[in-house]
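Consider this pair:
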Amino acid sequence: MSLEKIVFAGGCFWGVERYFQAIKGVENTVVGYANSKNPNPSYEQVCTGITNAAEAVEVTFNSDVISLKELLDHFFKIIDPFSLNRQGNDVGTQYRTGIYYTSQREVPIILDVLKQIVDRSGRKVQVEVLPLANFYPAEEYHQDYLLKNPYGYCHIPIPQTQEGSYLDKKMK
């Protein structure tokens, strides 16, 4: 099994996490705060904007089952790449969209997908692409939030769980 990690920010992390949990090849998800100026920020601190952290999801995936490009394609199905500091009703810098990579070899793949979006739309993409400087897991009550609260707020349509997905394995 070839495990890799990528971190996605796309508005409220509850829905982003739940979406990726349903995808075959995703082995684990953790919601948290990416690229914070402050170590181990709290949710309340992140919401003030002083930490410059983004609500994000660390996605651990098996690259023998799903490629980074396929994950990026999924990511762009659930976000508006042209919206700055906003996804759905979530507004603020902590809700910005971002892709935070853990390896330089991921950069050309990410940039190619972004270029395709720009070429198709003719519009400027508002997705932050940066190396992952840090990732702090969010408080426990945020982890698996939409599994614990299936009718909780979510701006993302949740797909059916694919057989062999992280969620499929977790529920067995």
Notes: The helical segments are 13-21, 43-48, 68-78, 107-121, 145-148, 166-171. Residues 3-171 form a domain with the Peptide Methionine Sulfoxide Reductase; Chain A fold (CATH 3.30.1060.10).
